[in-house]
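Hey, resending since the last one bounced:
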Amino acid sequence: MKRAWDYIRIKLLRHKQHIVIIAILLIFIYLGYEYSFKYSYIIKNPNMMKEIVLSYGNFSVLVFILMQVLQVVVFFIPGEFIQIAGGYIFGAFWGGMISLIGITLGSIIVYLIAKGYGKPLVEKLMLKKEIKFFKKILDAGSKKIVVLMFYLIPGIPKDALAYICGVSNISFKDFCIYSTLGRIPGIFISAYFGGKIYSKDVRSLITIGVIMSFLFLIGILKGNVIIKNIIKKKKIY
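The C-alpha cells again:
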C-alpha cells in the first residue's frame, strides 16, 4: 500500500504544473458557464450590472477586474458589453483603465496557461482551422506587428488569439506589450460609449455607435486582409 501511495505521490509531483493549470482552467470554465449563460441578461444590462458591482462597496473595482479577467480566459463571454459597462459604472477614463487592467491580467493568464500546457489544450478549446489560420499569420511576419494589428483591428477574436500566442514563439514580454497597446483604443472607445450612456448624451451615442459599428464591420469583413497586406507591404520576415 505504501509503495502505491509513493508511486501516486511521485506521479502527482511530476505533473503538478499540469494539474494546477487544468484545475485553474476548469474553475474559469465553470465560472464562465455560470455568468455567461445563467446571467447573460445582467452582462447586457448596464443598470443591473452597475447595481451589482457597486453593491460590493470598496471591493467593487476588484470585482469588475475579476469579471474582465474571466471574460478573457473564457473567451465566449462578450467583452464589448463589459467594457461599455465599465464606462457606465466608473466613467470613461476610470472604466477604461480598470477594464485595461483586468483584460491585461486575463491575457497574461491565458498566455501562461497555453504556454504551460501546450498545443493539446489549445486544440481542445479552438477549431483547428482557427489555430492554423492564426499561426500562419503569426509566422508570416514580425510577430510584434502581427499581434499589435490583430488586437488593434475590431471584429477579430482577440481573446482566442492569446491562446495561440501562448503556443507560439513570441516572447511573454512582447506579447504583453503589443497586445496591450493594440487593445487600448478599443477599450477606451467602449468605455467612452458607456460613459455617454450614463450621461444620456444621445447625439454622441449615435455618432460613436455608427463609428464603432462601421469599424467592427470592416474588422469582420476585411481585418484579415488588412493584416496580410500590411505584412506584405512592409516585407517583414
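The radius of gyration is 20 Å.

Sorry for the duplicate.
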